[in-house]
Amino acid sequence: MNNFEFKNPTKIIFGKDSIAKLANEIPSDAKVLLLYGGGSIKQNGIYNQVKAALKDIDHLEFGGIPANPEYDILLKALKCIKEEQITYLLAVGGGSVIDGTKFLSAAAYFEGETPWDLLTNKIPTLEGMPFGTVLTLPATGSEMNSGAVITRAETQEKLAMGGAGLFPKFSVLDPQVIQSIPERQLVNGITDAFTHVLEQYITYPAGALLQDRFAESIMQTLIEVAPKIIEDPKDYNAASNFMWSCTMALNGLIQKGVPTDWAIHAMGHELTALFGIDHARTLAIIAPSHYQYNFETKKEKLAQYGERVWQITEGSLEDKAYQAIERTEAFFKSLGIHTRLSEYTEAYEGTAELISQRFYERGWMGLGEHQNLKPEDVEHIVTMAY
Ligand code: NZQ
Ligand code: ZN
Questions:
Q1: Domains of the chain (ranges plus CATH)?
Q2: Residue 166 in contact with ligand 1 by CB distance below 6 A
C-alpha cells in the first residue's frame, strides 16, 4: 500500500426530510447566495423546502447555472457576490451547480488577473468562500470532494480545478430528491459513479486489500440498485443506497494508498467540450477502448474485478480480464447508454487527432496510473471508440 494522508472535512446530513436542517449549519450573521440550475428545483418542491429552511437567514438567489457549468454565466454570479457582499454560498443542484459554486468560492477570494487562471494554470485553492450544498442528483461525488470541472463555450474547453479549500462545509443528502430525476439523468448518475470507482481501481495491484474491497462493494451496490431505481425512483431504500454509493465513489476514501488513472475522464471531458455529450456518456464511450488498449498493464485488476464483481470464474486471467471489459460495456448498454462516439454524432472523424493535439499543446504528455500515455496513445484510444 502506498503512503497517504486523508482528511475530508465535509459534514454529511443524510436522510428523509433532512433539507429542513440546513439552516443549523449556516452562521446566523451570514449573507447567503443561493445558487441553482435550470429550474427543476422549482417543479419538484426542493426550492420551497430550501426557502423554508432559509426563512430567518439573509439571502439572495442566482439561478440558471446550466449543465456543464458555463464560465460566462458564473462570472455574472461572481459580480453579484462582490456587489452584494455575499459571505456564504449555498448550492442546490447536481454536480454542475455544485461545481459552479466551487468555482465561485475560489474566484471570490482570488487575487490573480482573471479567474480562468484557476483552471488553465491549475492554481489550487487553499481557502475559498465557505459554502454548503443540497444535492439533488447523485452522480459526481462533488458534494463531498474538493474538485470541480468548468466549461467555457467560447473556447470549447472543459477544465478541472480544486484544492483543500473547496470541500463543502456541509452537504444535505435527502434520497427522496431522486423521485423527480428523469431516467436519462439517473442512468448518467449510475454510469458516472461506477466509472469513478473504475478509475481508482482498474490500475495495477498495490496490495491494498481494504481499498479494493471498498471499491468492489460500491460497484456491486450500484449494479444491485440500478434496476430498482430505474423501475421505481420512489423506492427509498434503493434511492438511499444509490445516493450514498455515488458519494462514497468519489470522496477520496477509495483512492487512498492506491494508484489512480483518470485518463477516461480526461478524454471524456473533451467529448463534452466538443459535442456537448453528457459527462457520464463520454465515460461509457471511452472506457471499453481504454481498457482494451491498456490491457497488458491492467489485466490483473481487470481479472480481479471480473471475478469479484461480475462472478466470472471460467478461463485464464486474460480471459477473465477480457470478459470483464465486455461485461462493463454490456452494463452501460443495459442502462440504455450508447458506448460508441458515432452513436452520438456524425461529425466524429478527426476527433481523435484533435484531442491528441490539444493534449500535446497543453503539455499533457503522460496520462494514466503509469503517467506514460502520450497524445499518440490518446489518439488510438479515441479512434477505437468511434
Ligand atoms: O439544471 P436543473 O434544472 O437543476 O436540472 C438538472 C440538469 O438538467 C437535472 N436535475 C438535477 N437534479 C434533479 C434534476 N431534474 C429533476 N429532479 C432533480 N432532483 O439534471 C440535469 C443534469 O444536472 P447536472 O448537475 O449537470 O448533472 P451531474 O450531477 O451529472 O453533473 C455533471 C457535471 O459534474 C461534473 C461533470 O463534468 C459535469 O460538468 N463532474 C464533477 C465532478 C466532481 N466535482 O467531482 C466529478 C465528475 O467526474 C464530473 O466530471
Ligand atoms: Zn465523472
A1: 11-176 (3.40.50.1970), 182-384 (1.20.1090.10)
A2: no
pLDDT at 344: 98
Q: What is the pTM of this model?
A: 0.98
Q: Give 73-98 pLDDT, tens digit per residue.
A: 999 999 999 999 999 999 999 999 99
* Cα–Cα distance, 148 to 99 (Å, whole number): 5
pLDDT at 134: 98
Residues facing residue 149 across a β-bridge: 160
Instruction: Identify the burial level of 209 via C-beta atoms within 10 angstroms of its C-beta, where 0-12 means exposed, 13-18 middle and 19 or more buried.
Output: exposed
Residues with CB under 5 A from ligand 2 (ion): 192
Residues lower than pLDDT 70 in the chain: none
- The string of pLDDT tens digits covering residues 174-216 is 999 999 999 999 999 999 999 999 999 999 999 999 999 999 9
CA 30 – ligand 2 centroid, Å: 32
Q: 278 C-alpha vs ligand 1 centroid, how far in Å? A: 9
Best substitution site from 185, 242, 251 to test ligand 1's pocket, by max atoms within 8 Å of Cβ?
185
40 ligand 1 Cβ < 6 A:
yes
Smallest-distance ligand from the CA of 148:
1
| 252: Cβ contacts below 8 Å, ≥ 6 apart | 6, 8, 145
Which atom number of ligand 1 is nearest to the Cα of residue 189? Answer: 30
**Nine cell digits for residue 170:** 456541509
Q: What nine digits make up the cell of 105?
A: 468560492
- Tell me the C-alpha distance between 204 and 258, whole Å: 9
Backbone angles phi, psi at 254, to 5 degrees: -75, -15
